[in-house]
Design brief:
Strand content: under 5%
CATH topology of the largest domain: Death Domain, Fas
Number of helices: 14
CATH architecture of the largest domain: Orthogonal Bundle
Number of domains: 2
Radius of gyration: 19 Å
Organism: Stegodyphus mimosarum
Order of helices and strands: HHHHHHHHHHHHHH
Helix content: 55-70%
Protein name: Death domain-containing protein
Domain Death: 137-205
Structural class: mainly alpha
Number of strands: 0
CATH class of the largest domain: Mainly Alpha
Amino acid sequence: MDLEESYVDLKNDIIRLFGLHTDLEVVKLYFKKGINSKRALSKVKSLQDVIGLLEERDLLHSQNVNVLLQLAQFLKNSNAEERVRLYNKLVLDDPDPPCICGFRYYYTPDIDEENLENYKDVSSSTDANNNIENKRLEEAIENIAQRIGKKWRVLATELGLKECQIDLIRRDSRDIVHQARRALQIWVQTHGHVTMQMLDKALQERLCQKEGIGLHLKDSIIGITC
């Protein structure tokens, strides 16, 4: 996959990870200074529209995705943040890449403290509602990582991880449990809102069943969901 294809994949993943629950007005306010056009902002109907405006103004392109990283950090979306960092590491081979001119570009948002605090209040409330589900998912992931052994690659394939991601995980550590845990974490980070039902479904897919790991691990999830 070439640079531009990887960049398109990144944008699609970011749009999915932010999902329909992202406050578009906050995003527009965040990039108001950089876009610098009330008319253009008034026509924005989706995050994809915002991304298009950022690209038109050369604030975002395949070799510099720092504005997406900053937005993810601002909105406290750890999955989106990790996806951008993964792109920087795997595609650009630089955890903190410079722009074409050689300087590292960081966007300075035009957002006042009152709006920022209002957003934080809403964000905190949403985070609290998701804490229980996230905790259960973390426990299921840890249980599976401890028990799946070398067959974690089979499950990773069913979960949609790419071969380059699997290879990177294997190079980063020789510890099987760490490899399995990392694969599951990347799945969570790149797919946004995931559930234990989705994990259970992957364990029941043909490849997992063929390798005999579905039933072996099923109680790792059942014991937590009950």
